[in-house]
Design goal:
Shape: elongated
Strand order of the largest sheet: 1-3-2
Order of helices and strands: HEHHEEHHH
Largest sheet: 3 strands, antiparallel
Helix content: 55-70%
Strand content: 5-15%
Number of strands: 3
Structural class: mainly alpha
CATH class of the largest domain: Mainly Alpha
CATH superfamily of the largest domain: Winged helix-like DNA-binding domain superfamily/Winged helix DNA-binding domain
CATH topology of the largest domain: Arc Repressor Mutant, subunit A
């Protein structure tokens, strides 16, 4: 799971890919130069690192994701629940709701998610 963790700058880089994929590696270099002030070598170094970690791929000069942004955040959320609450989703929800009141709409959405996730 640690291989999916992104630092702050890596997350900015990942967002560029997620927002523009699939994209040519030369276009990624241009975007990183524009948005992150990176040199070409920095872009390719970080891209290779994240490809090696299984987050992105660069096939014939076309960069795309192996995991979507939603899948990435889902994995990160699962890690937080596992690491901080012993894998207990009810303990996480109890901690979360002890500081934040849920709206009726949020409660309805959560109930709907629970119904969808029930084991058959």
């Amino acid at each position: 799971m640690d291989e999916l963790k992104l630092g702050v700058v890596e997350a900015q880089f990942a967002d560029i890919i997620w927002l523009n994929e699939p994209l040519a590696s030369r276009e990624l270099v241009r975007l990183c130069e524009e948005k992150l002030k990176w040199k070409k070598s920095t872009t390719y170094t970080v891209l290779k690192k994240l490809c090696d970690r299984g987050i992105f791929k660069n096939v014939d000069g076309t960069v795309s994701s192996v995991i979507s942004k939603a899948e990435y955040f889902s994995a990160q959320s699962e890690k937080i629940v596992n690491d901080s609450f012993g894998g207990s989703l009810p303990a996480f929800i109890a901690a979360f709701t002890s500081r934040k009141t849920l709206t009726d709409e949020e409660i309805a959405q959560i109930r709907s998610m629970i119904e969808s996730a029930k084991e058959e």
